[in-house]
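Re: [ENG-882] Designed sequences occasionally contain unexpected residues at chain ends

Forwarding the minimal case from QA. Structure tokens:
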């Protein structure tokens, strides 16, 4: 199920037109999809920066058509159920395919001459109909250091029907299912958040950059549960720039379940600050023994007066 709004969006009709990659603070690049089964004590992982050659990345993404009338927010996906991002080392071309008819390509000719400071690569291209397609790969910067295996990414593309579709995704070097933590409690730090929020106010909607949000992430490897609590803080975006003090947008929390035979976890988010109508989180571990974590999340909620809140975001961290 998706939720639509038909009110006027203040600021911009499409997130990619709101500067800074749509308010993203950290965005990713490719992930190796095959590694040998590890033996005890072995570490068959390359860091994200060490990867060379052709490679394909699986993703977990929060996606939405951020225009009015007709805004659509899709539920955050399981890891491996959204965009497939293939990199050809010979041509240096990213080929991106995904749900809703997404088919985008970015190469050296599309490199942004003024990329965001938080990116390792940024691509931008204006299509024949005037739509600005963008793809940004984050540099892995977290709170207090750089993450080795997981990245966040931003994509502004078009659906098969020509609708503008915004994605906030996580990707990287995923933990092998045979190498995931089997027991014990895990607490993740060095958290970095990327994303956008649209809040309904009198006369329209306000756009926020949510990079200042704070997140608590922990896992119980014994029970296969991931606990997440996301305190949404947004800086208002006007004329493509996020500025001013942060605005409290509510806290959303939930417990995600690790899949039994797949490299993913997923769950529902709820809140005591707003009524959650459709809010999810999905993602996976990255690096040896689940050293890092990445997830996408979506929020569709409303306050007591029926004013709506829409959020697309990602969170990454390590332990």
């Amino acid at each position: 199920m998706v939720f639509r709004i038909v009110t006027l969006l203040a600021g911009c009709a499409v997130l990619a037109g709101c500067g800074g990659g749509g308010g993203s603070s950290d965005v990713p690049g490719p992930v190796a999809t095959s590694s040998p089964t590890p033996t005890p004590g072995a570490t068959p992982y390359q860091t994200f920066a060490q990867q060379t050659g052709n490679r394909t990345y699986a993703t977990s993404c929060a996606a939405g058509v951020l225009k009015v009338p007709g805004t659509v927010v899709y539920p955050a996906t399981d890891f491996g159920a959204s965009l497939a991002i293939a990199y050809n080392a010979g041509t240096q071309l990213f080929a991106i395919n995904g749900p809703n008819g997404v088919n985008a390509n970015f190469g050296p000719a599309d490199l942004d001459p003024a990329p965001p400071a938080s990116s390792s690569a940024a691509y931008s291209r204006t299509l024949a109909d005037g739509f600005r397609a963008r793809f940004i790969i984050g540099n892995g910067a977290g709170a207090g250091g750089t993450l080795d295996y997981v990245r966040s990414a931003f994509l502004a593309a078009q659906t098969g029907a020509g609708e503008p579709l915004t994605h906030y995704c996580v990707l990287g070097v995923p933990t092998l299912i045979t190498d995931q933590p089997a027991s014990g409690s895990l607490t993740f730090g060095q958290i970095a958040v990327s994303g956008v929020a649209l809040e309904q106010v009198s006369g329209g909607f306000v756009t926020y950059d949510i990079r200042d949000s704070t997140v608590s992430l922990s896992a119980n490897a014994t029970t296969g549960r991931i606990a997440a609590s996301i305190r949404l803080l947004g800086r208002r975006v006007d004329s493509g720039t996020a500025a001013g003090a942060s605005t409290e947008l509510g806290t959303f929390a939930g417990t995600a379940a690790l899949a039994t035979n797949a490299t993913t976890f997923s769950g529902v988010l709820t809140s005591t600050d707003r009524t959650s109508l459709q809010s999810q989180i999905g993602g996976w571990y990255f690096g040896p023994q689940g050293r890092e974590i990445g997830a996408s999340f979506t929020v569709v909620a409303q306050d007591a007066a029926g004013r709506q809140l829409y959020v697309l975001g990602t969170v990454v961290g390590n332990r």
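QA comment: On inspection the terminal residues look reasonable. Residues 3-318 form a domain with the Porin fold (CATH 2.40.160.90). Proposing we downgrade this to a documentation issue.
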